[in-house]
């Protein structure tokens, strides 16, 4: 049977979920309110009286939201009348029906995944109800700052990439496999740099992303990188016999800043090496979970890389820009990614997006939130098969690249979870451990 959803006050207090809602979410909200207030003059310069009024109204809505959260008030319907508003309100109704009455769905008595996603949607509602500051990205400062504070690591990575590109033609398959593995792991550990777990505090990349890889290897609990490699090379082989079906890769992105650079470097290597013909990137439709990538972040980081006063970094940026212009790379967003839904609901609730992913040869899911949605954020036993936890979500061969920052992990060996719990009680939430976890419906 399917285990229940992770809730906030279920097992024992303080759970990571409980501490998230009790401490980190209010901290994130306070930072948002502070950011808007600090930009009061900017809004009045840009929009005059209207800007000042919008700032005031938005802050009062966000203060009300923080109070509702901290006093465990019932979750309320959205009122901003946007395309996904009804979906959110229906989802609330569904939970209210399941829990029996209107007021039972409250901040601390609801599934963790739901209320955490709901908070970011409510932040957006507060802005969307107050044009002209509707499109203001309350997390932009943190995202740009974390990028600038990762500059040294960005340069090291682009220098490494350019050195590979220089000798690409001469590389043997084994050498190609070595570089593939390294850059896959760099993208994996890039996921440590999310600003939600740090409640907006600096969480940029300080150490060299390449040199540290071997010391991090023992912390990869599930490593399916070999199957990812054979999936890519398998698809390519068909291409080489003249059929034009070489691999299409989709990357469901997570955080902006350094993590996005690691994803772009990996995608660049796969295209330059001929392992992949095209890459489709999937981002969020609005600012989400503090640091998740939006279209503005995606374009900004490529521009910043192009404009870098470091020759090899700007060379990489220029190539990325040309990939976008030529259509080798494309950026997409879909409202489904900013809903609280488990991915096993995608085929029914977002059939267009499911069909899009079915056109891919491999879908990479970056990060912890995507993993929680892949597995339904439920109390699965650690030894349950990844396929079981996916509950029918199998649009294409897929792989999660995730550092553990939430209380769900499946596909472990018998005893592996218990052993980790005995050594480190917070092994699932410290982002010290990671997984490269693959599943292919084709393999079944
Ligand atoms: O950016 P990521 O890897 O999805 O991490 C998001 C973080 O936010 C959380 O929701 C906790 O607030 C966890 O999922 C994770 O710790
Ligand atoms: Mg994130």
From TrEMBL:
Family that this chain belongs to: Belongs to the damage-control phosphatase family. Sugar phosphate phosphatase III subfamily.
Enzyme Commission (EC) number: 2.1.1.-, 3.1.3.-
Gene Ontology MF terms in the entry: fructose 6-phosphate aldolase activity; fructose-1-phosphatase activity; metal ion binding; protein-glutamate O-methyltransferase activity
Reaction equation(s) it catalyzes: beta-D-fructose 6-phosphate = dihydroxyacetone + D-glyceraldehyde 3-phosphate; L-glutamyl-[protein] + S-adenosyl-L-methionine = [protein]-L-glutamate 5-O-methyl ester + S-adenosyl-L-homocysteine; beta-D-fructose 1-phosphate + H2O = D-fructose + phosphate
Function: Metal-dependent phosphatase that shows phosphatase activity against several substrates, including fructose-1-phosphate and fructose-6-phosphate. Its preference for fructose-1-phosphate, a strong glycating agent that causes DNA damage rather than a canonical yeast metabolite, suggests a damage-control function in hexose phosphate metabolism. Has also been shown to have O-methyltransferase activity that methylates glutamate residues of target proteins to form gamma-glutamyl methyl ester residues. Possibly methylates PCNA, suggesting it is involved in the DNA damage response.
Species the sequence originates in: Mola mola
GO biological process: DNA damage response; methylation
Keywords: Hydrolase, Manganese, Metal-binding, Methyltransferase, Nickel, S-adenosyl-L-methionine, Transferase
The record's note on its domains: Subfamily III proteins have a conserved RTxK motif about 40-50 residues from the C-terminus; the threonine may be replaced by serine or cysteine.
Descriptive protein name: Sugar phosphate phosphatase
Pfam families named in the record: ARMT1-like_dom (PF01937)
Keyword Manganese part of the UniProt annotation: yes
Domain Damage-control phosphatase ARMT1-like metal-binding positions: 20-420
Cofactor: Mn(2+); Ni(2+)
